[in-house]
Amino acid sequence: MDTDRRLVVEWTDPAEALPRFADLPGIEYLRRMSDGRLPAPPIARVFGMRFSDVEDGRITVGCDPREAFFNPLGVVHGGLACTMLDTAVGCAVHTTLPAGTGYTSIDLSVSYLRPLLPSVGPVTATGTVVKRGRRVAFAEGVLTDEAGTVYATATSSLLVMGPQG
Q1: pTM as predicted
Q2: SS3 string of the chain?
Q3: Is the pLDDT of residue 165 over 50?
């Protein structure tokens, strides 16, 4: 029986990407993270998240549920789904923002529909902007497996802050 289980995480200094935040529109900033021209944020490396399908007002974030994310009941902790959905809705809003403009969650409501297990395989959180105002944006997210089975959904309100200077 293999009892030597470990999770080693390495990441790139986030200071490498941050200077580009000020001069790239959000969609381009995230596209560069998606294709590797800019390093992904450390949290993406911790959870093994992958950014893809970066469009105006929409993004997908992929991840592989693993045993390392188990809760005491032997299923993947709901925090993984919550983190993926929070990332997807926030980054969906980021795709609509001009250079140097940030955002932060005001609220996040997650509904868990079924348990996540490593046997589910890769899952994807898709974030979509419902409405973006000057100061507040509204977005929704859905977490699915490759067959389209829904595991969790989310709605969020986000405060638009910017431009940073």
Answers
A1: 0.93
A2: CCCCCCCCCCCCCHHHCHHHHCCCCHHHHHHHHHCCCCCCCHHHHHHCCEEEEEECCEEEEEECCCHHHECCCCCECHHHHHHHHHHHHHHHHHCCCCCCCEEEEEEEEEEECCCCCHHHCCEEEEEEEEEECCCEEEEEEEEEECCCCEEEEEEEEEEEECCCC
A3: no
